[in-house]
């Protein structure tokens, strides 16, 4: 919306600044942050009034965590509506919404957020930790991924770019066009990222903080991929409209910052599946758009470690009857080892930032 003000630069020259991606990305971040700060207390008050408290599953390990750090049952959940709303409004205001990458990012975030909201609503209504079935969530997220992937893969301006298959550290695509095979791959990335962020959302501010570092890294990558001279220098895939995705990423980082104001320990609100599924799905979509899906393993290292810890724990218990960790996801393992919740969160944030920087640095290894 605000981008079009640059068309009036002949009447007022200063308006040409609205053509700048970096200017609009900065204001998108600030706008999303302020929206969360201003609207946060009202959203929390509404959730409290609706008695949208967080249900806690009944397990011996959970009781042990309660003894260490207190029972969080009753803290309002579904706070992800604040993140999704702030990102959507900020993106509509500052990005060029006509661009297919921006349109798809908004669709994936809102649609995955709706799936998460349905899950949270059922949990609150039933007063249990069981919402939508795992199968229902998987099918819904896969459908969203397939729709988004098909739109980009066969859009006139993005199709050939998206259907190329890239792997890190190679200067050229491994395959120039993988056709319809891109769709199951995209579904795997988006669904996997969505569930990884969902598993990470187990401590106050943990998922929000890791979202900031991961999104900031991909925002820089989107800006680089959308700028021909930078993309040529780094030897990364270039598409001129990817720069607008940097505005979206900046809005998401700003919203995560704003949400963290209320979500830091002790949390006043949880993002719930409404936020975690939306954030994870759209991070997966962004990784696809910039053609660095596999780099998400490094840039989103904490999310990957959380998901991998659950997979290893379940696999080990089923095959050997033994657990690898005291509890999974892995952040609970460190809690049960005696680390205070704040120590776990801060150290995971630091590792997440390290992975993000390492991922960006790896762009020169080509």
Descriptive account of the structure:
- With 366 residues, the protein is an all-alpha fold.
- It has one domain (27-364).
- The chain has 15 helices and no strands.
- It is globular, with a radius of gyration of 20 Å.
- The model has no long low-confidence stretch (mean pLDDT 90).
In short:
This protein has helices spanning 21-49, 60-69, 80-94, 100-126, 134-153, 159-163, 182-200, 206-226, 228-234, 243-263, 272-289, 296-299, 301-320, 330-336, 341-361. With 366 residues, the protein is mainly α.
Uncertain segments are none
> Could you tell me how far the N terminus lies from the C terminus, measured between alpha carbons in angstroms?
38 Å
Shape: globular
Structural class: mainly alpha
How many whole angstroms does the radius of gyration measure? 20 Å
Give the topology string: H per helix, E per strand. Answer: HHHHHHHHHHHHHHH
Number of helices: 15
Key words describing this protein structure:
366 residues; mainly alpha; 15 helices
Task: Describe the SSE topology.
Elements: H1 21-49, H2 60-69, H3 80-94, H4 100-126, H5 134-153, H6 159-163, H7 182-200, H8 206-226, H9 228-234, H10 243-263, H11 272-289, H12 296-299, H13 301-320, H14 330-336, H15 341-361
Helix pairs in contact: 1-3, 1-10, 3-4, 3-10, 3-11, 4-5, 4-11, 5-7, 7-11, 7-13, 8-10, 8-11, 8-15
